[in-house]
Design goal:
By secondary structure, this protein is mainly α. 89% of the residues lie in helices and 0% in strands. The radius of gyration is 36 Å and the shape is elongated.
Length: 150
């Protein structure tokens, strides 16, 4: 019983394709009739040669496209969704890490000021040195360079 259903569905598909081909041929004939006779032969030859070339050439993309199923597309979309979630999580964790690094750096700076409040000359030199390193890291290499990745 299933074989009969398959045969009838295959026959229906073949008939549909034949009807579409006939319809396209009829449209092409209408267009060709409007072309002057001396140019019509050239156009017909070009159409025949191009259709032969198109049938003989099958690109790898065409072969792959014929094998794609909705299941493949669903798997691809699931993978893309997972990648988006991971990307969001990575950006979130990077922001948390940057925030915590800033808190630790501020705590270190405050501790440095508290410890060296009696020695202003040493504190001034250390603050300038640490400030230069921090500015260089932010603007030059570390923080500025990684900002382009987002």
């Amino acid at each position: 019983m299933e074989e009969n259903k398959e045969e009838s569905s295959n026959e229906t598909q073949i008939l549909d394709n034949v009807d579409k081909d006939n319809l396209e041929e009829a449209e092409l004939e209408d267009v060709l009739e409007s072309v002057p006779p001396e140019h019509r032969k050239v156009i017909e030859r070009m159409m025949i040669s191009s259709s032969i070339q198109m049938r003989s050439i099958s690109s790898p993309e065409t072969v792959v496209m014929k094998k794609l199923t909705p299941d493949h597309i669903s798997k691809y979309l699931d993978g893309a969704e997972l990648e988006m979630k991971n990307s969001y999580a990575e950006k979130f964790h990077r922001k948390i890490f940057t925030f915590l690094t800033m808190i630790v750096a501020m705590a270190f700076f405050i501790l440095l000021v508290i410890l060296l409040k009696d020695n202003p000359d040493v504190m001034e030199k250390i603050i300038y040195t640490v400030g230069g390193v921090v500015i260089g890291a932010f603007g030059g290499y570390g923080f500025g360079k990684n900002r382009n990745d987002e």
